[in-house]
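Record Acetate kinase, 400 aa.
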Amino acid sequence: MKILVINCGSSSIKYELFQMEDEMVIAKGLVEKIGTESAIVTYQVTGKEERMETAEILDHREGLNLVLRLLMDEKEGVIKSKNEVTAVGHRVVHGGEYFSKSAIITSEVRQAIRKTIDLAPLHNPPNLLGISAAEQQLPDATHVAVFDTAFHQTMPKRSFLYPLPYVLYTRHKIRRYGFHGTSHKYVSEKAAAFVGKPLSDLKVISAHIGNGASVTAIENGISTDTSMGMTPLEGLMMGTRCGDIDPAIVPYVIAKEDLTLSEIQSMMNKHSGLLGVTGMSSDMREVTEAMEEGNEQAKLAIQMYLYKLRKTIGAYIAAMNGIDILLFTAGVGENSTYVRQEVCNNLSFFGIEIDTTQNNIRSKEVREISTPNSKVKVLVVPTNEELMIAREAKQLVDQS
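=>
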C-alpha cells in the first residue's frame, strides 16, 4: 500500500510518499511560492540526489498535478499510475471539538473543518485547498484528515477551560485546544516502546521544541494538559512567538504605540520570542553562537527561553504528581545539546540526572541521555509527523 502525505500551507505543498509495508519513504519534496510564475519545486527519490526546478504554478491544484507528474516520471518516477496511491493523508491544523481522532474526509468533515477556520485562519484554509486539489487529482484514493488538535481532546475541562465567563465557551468554544498533537502522540509511543513499558502505565512529559514549541503532559497514554492554547501563540517562549504574557499588555501597547489589532497580533506571532529579545534571529543555533561570542541580548533570550521551558515542565510534573519519562523532540529538542543540558541541570530536585557524554551524541535514533542513577528516564526522540499521518491513514483504510 502506498500513501501520499501532504501538508499544505498558503503557498506551499510539502509531500512524502510512503510504502506502508516497511513504512519507507519512497519520494518526498516541496512546492513553494505557489501563485507565482517562479514557484520552486523540489523532488527527491530516496537514495538519489534532490532535483529542483522552477515553474509557473498558479494554485494548489496545479502544484499537486506537478507533484504527481514527478512521481510518475518515466526516468525518475516511483509509480506508474495514480491508482497506485491508495490513500492521501492530509495534515489539518485545527479540528476544534469536532474531531478527537483522524477521519476519512466526507462532505460533513469538510464542513466541520470550515467551521474551525476562525480558530486557525492562517492554516485551515490552505489545508482545505490541499484537500480539494488532492481529491480532484486522486479521485479514487481514500482521503484522510489528521488533526494537530485531536490528540489533546482527552484533556479534562479543568485543563482546557479558561477562567472567563462560561458563556464564551458555550457560544464560541473559547478554550485550550493544543497543537503538535500528531508529534506528541508519535514520540510518546516511541518512548514507551524504547523503555519496554506500556504507555498506559507511564507519566510522560513531551517537549516538542522547534521554532514553534509546546510541552504536553501525557498521563496513562492520554494528553491531560498542553502548553499551547486556543491558538499556537500561548505557552512557551518560541522562535518568533511571545508565548504567555499579561493580556493587559495588548491594549496598553496598542495605545502607546498606536498599533492596530492586526499589527499587534503580527508582533506577538512573528516578531517576538527569540527574535524579539535578541533583535537578530529566531534560530536557536544562531542565538546560541551569538551568546558564546558574548552577545548579552542573546544570553538574556536563552535564559528566558530555558526558564519558561523548565518552569512548564516542573508544573506538569506537579500536575501529574510524578514523571517517568521526559523526552525532547523537534528541531531544537533533537539537536541542541545545550538546551537539553541546561533544562535538566535545574530539574535535579526531581531526581533527573543527565549523562553529558550521551547528551552530546548525535543520532537519528531514540536514545537515553540520563544516567543509570536518574530517577527519570530522559530521552531524545526524533519526531516523524508525516509517518504518523501515514499510519493514521492506513488504519482508517484498513478499517473501511
